[in-house]
Amino acid sequence: MNAAHDLDILEVLPHRYPMLMVDRILETDHERRIVGLKNLSFNEPFFNGHFPGDPVMPAVLQLEAMAQVAGVLVNRILKTEGQVAYFLSIDKAKFRRILRPGDQLRIEIEVLRLRLGMAKVHGRVLCEGEVASEAELLFGRPRN
Asked: What is the chain written as a DSSP string?
């Protein structure tokens, strides 16, 4: 399994600061599985308002991080780097642990189904080996 250099993420994903939710790809098999990394710091813009005096990573941004890591893998499989895949549905989302500045997130994605430009994946965000959140995500490309 090969890790991707940080700059490769910018070539594959169209997201930029402050919406880029993945710092590095740690491993991938280029077909079914990928693992990304996100380091949370006090400098994250969402910590200012969520919540003042008690900074917590919003659950929806954990889902966004899963989707971005999945996007790296799906774009590689479909050879569509730089294009946007849009959320179609989120199922079985569970949030089990609060994430705070200083936490390092391991984002694991496994492709469940890939067909006709649509992908269903199972994602997990882990922190210190403990599942913080997980969900099944379905996304696809808009029709022109």
From this structure: -PPBPHHHHHHH----TTS---SEEEEE-SSSEEEEEEE--TT-GGGGTS-TTS----HHHHHHHHHHHHHHHHHHHHT-TT---EEEEEEEEEE-S---TT-EEEEEEEEEEEETTEEEEEEEEEETTEEEEEEEEEEEPPP-
